[in-house]
Amino acid sequence: MAEDSSNAPGSPGRHRARGATAGRRRKRPSARRRAVLYTVWTLAAVLVLGGAGLGYLYYKLNGNLTGVDVNAALGANRPKDADDGSMDVLVLGSDSRAGKNAKYGKDGGTSRSDTAMIVHIYKGHQKASVVSIPRDTLVDRPSCTTKEGQEAPAEQGAMFNSAYEAGGPACTIKTIESMTDIRMDHFLEVDFSGFKQLIDDLGGVNITTTAPIHDAKSHLDLEPGPHTLGGEQSLGLVRTRHGVGDGSDLGRIKLQQAFVKALLDQVKHVDVFGNPKKLYDLADTSTKALTTDSELASVSKLKGFAESLKGIGSNNMKMTTLPVEYDPQNPDRVLPMEHKAQLIWTALRNDRPVPASATKGSAGDATSAGKVVK
């Protein structure tokens, strides 16, 4: 997400075909948190609302940001750009349990991308489509360069989130570009602890639940009705799986998408002008939580991005999950429905809305979990 909004996907490409039939679902014991898009859009709103008032803080906030030169790692063999004014951004969250994130689970010495969302910002920057990719989707991962500079060989039928473990954000981008033939203009990544603090700095997020949510694993107990969730409860909500719907990870994605919209609606009403401390706390927390590609690793560029997105709200953001079916050989994994997935990628490459037919019949579209929160 950058000041320069001219970069966008271009040429159509090939897509791998997987022949598979729908399999039954099995619940998995692990639980992870997704926080990324919430933090990105909150930071964007804060930078827009704060405007020039943040000028005296730019130097300090720049020091908070972490930048990664993914372009150097990816090289020139990538999908072409199309100068149509649209933009594609990969938003990531990793499941590292090191440092402040240790209390959310053990750190096995590696990280995997716990959340992956492709954000397509349409020409004119007045609307967007967000495509969530389930972490357990089986894909053909291309060869990648590891953090140590070694080559991680290509792997067929690899879990999607293993790409981050193999080669960090650059490998995840390479995998997505191989799947979609859409060039990712930028990437952003957020950590768990930063998300929790961000919600607390906001003063909580207002939601309404239409059904009870009780999940001991995410320490969440909510009765039907209105709630103001602090950071810890918000983390519980976006990670809960057993407390809503059919208990699947796909249902949790729907719940997260509903939470994104609730947060977007609330951020617009934050009185940063009347509360300079809140403005500073939000900007400080957001920039500390973010890792970006090196082209975005400055507050001035993030502010330019934020200005370009200020017309996008919850009503003109379409949330979609990659069309998938359960793997009949392993119901803990899902397979892309290639024909339907290609409908999505073709639409985004051509800057068109995602057709409703692209998700019809998908396991990710079958769950009603997203209706639990509004």
Automatic annotation (TrEMBL):
<keyword id="KW-0472">Membrane</keyword>
<feature type="region of interest" description="Disordered">
    <location>
        <begin position="354"/>
        <end position="374"/>
    </location>
</feature>
<feature type="compositionally biased region" description="Basic residues">
    <location>
        <begin position="13"/>
        <end position="29"/>
    </location>
</feature>
<keyword id="KW-1133">Transmembrane helix</keyword>
<dbReference type="Pfam" id="PF03816">
    <property type="entry name" value="LytR_cpsA_psr"/>
</dbReference>
<dbReference type="InterPro" id="IPR050922">
    <property type="entry name" value="LytR/CpsA/Psr_CW_biosynth"/>
</dbReference>
<keyword id="KW-0812">Transmembrane</keyword>
<feature type="domain" description="Cell envelope-related transcriptional attenuator">
    <location>
        <begin position="112"/>
        <end position="268"/>
    </location>
</feature>
<comment type="similarity">
    <text>Belongs to the LytR/CpsA/Psr (LCP) family.</text>
</comment>
<protein>
    <submittedName>
        <fullName>Transcriptional regulator</fullName>
    </submittedName>
</protein>
<feature type="transmembrane region" description="Helical">
    <location>
        <begin position="35"/>
        <end position="59"/>
    </location>
</feature>
<dbReference type="InterPro" id="IPR004474">
    <property type="entry name" value="LytR_CpsA_psr"/>
</dbReference>
<feature type="region of interest" description="Disordered">
    <location>
        <begin position="1"/>
        <end position="29"/>
    </location>
</feature>
